[in-house]
# Entry
Amino acid sequence: MSIFKEIPPTSGWTCHARDIFSLFRKNKSANLAEDFKGYLGAGYAEVTYSGTAALYLILESLKKISTKRTILIPAYVCPLVALAAQKAGLKVKVCDINKDNFDFDYTAFGEFCAQGSDILAVIVIHLGGVMMDFDRIKSITQNYEIFIIEDCAQALGAEYKGRKAGTLGDFSFFSLARGKGLTIYEGGVVVSNKEKYFQVLEETIKSLVRKNYLSELLKIFELFGYWIFYRPCLFWFVFKLPQVFWKQKGNEVRAFGEEYGVDFDYHKVSFLRKFFGHLSFYRLEKEIDSQRQKALYYIKNLSGISGLRAVQENPGTKAVYPFLTLLFDDINKRNLILKTLDSYGLGVSIVYVNAICDYGYLKPTLSLASCENARGLSRRQLTLSTSAFLKEQDLELIVETIKKLMSE
# Structure
């Protein structure tokens, strides 16, 4: 195991010193929400404490529009999605996904929508920056007056038939958390392109979101800490060391940072952190291009290997690839490759530990159906980092190691 080199598992951006110290400039007239509106071509955007807080505020807004009280989510998703619905007092139904990607099992999805007269909204999750089949989702949901919420936490800049992720549904949300690319250490954005919903969003945010000076001061200090530690020579101490500790304790969920609670914060974000996000926004397209180039390198050089496939963009879409997901037919091969590459410190990791139905602390929240495809995918997947810290020789080593172990 490399202690002095640990590449982050996702394409979080490096923090530039000039951006950190620019926080003390006197002229701070720029607006991060306006950056999002302009980039996406959306009519409404508001910066929130986190992506989870953004989803929670959307769900609270929907409760004012409709009497329905059930949310439909895919079976392979961040547990925080379910917890946001729980905090909003909503029920959660789980629909299985495809065997070989993150999209819905559309046979099951159609049945859920047809039978679920109480379904308020479906969460469309562009996991790994890869767009779901939005046209198919819309063609099914429009018959049942079901709202569409896009989860773009990993998909800022992704496109579907020329339109940006986050502008396709009724509502969407983004994450600005550490490691997610554009970051303010912890943050999110609520977005809507439907003018009839702007006022209810604004009213909900004004009624629920309050200032918390102590918590916000802590986040500013953590942002400075991110600037210091988010680099290969120090990342091991804040990421890998806790992971090793919790694995030794037998708590894999906590090792991968997936042990959450329903009492998440949603207070106001300081102007200082929003200004930092604005200062970084100009880098977006360049960083996306770098991520894509690394992902396409993996795809090109690993194509044609029997028993291995990549989860990649569909025709007419553009993925942003904060990481590239590989799926293995042989679970033992996957485990061997994950163990081997993990010891190299090159950012090889996994998406989520479990299918959503297998997190014990979520079971009281979920209305469960079959999630066998999601459960199988969780055992067959690993992720390849597209971090800016990866060098050409790192990419070559990753590819050659996979080829060698797959051939044995």
Remarks:
- The chain has a mean pLDDT of 94.
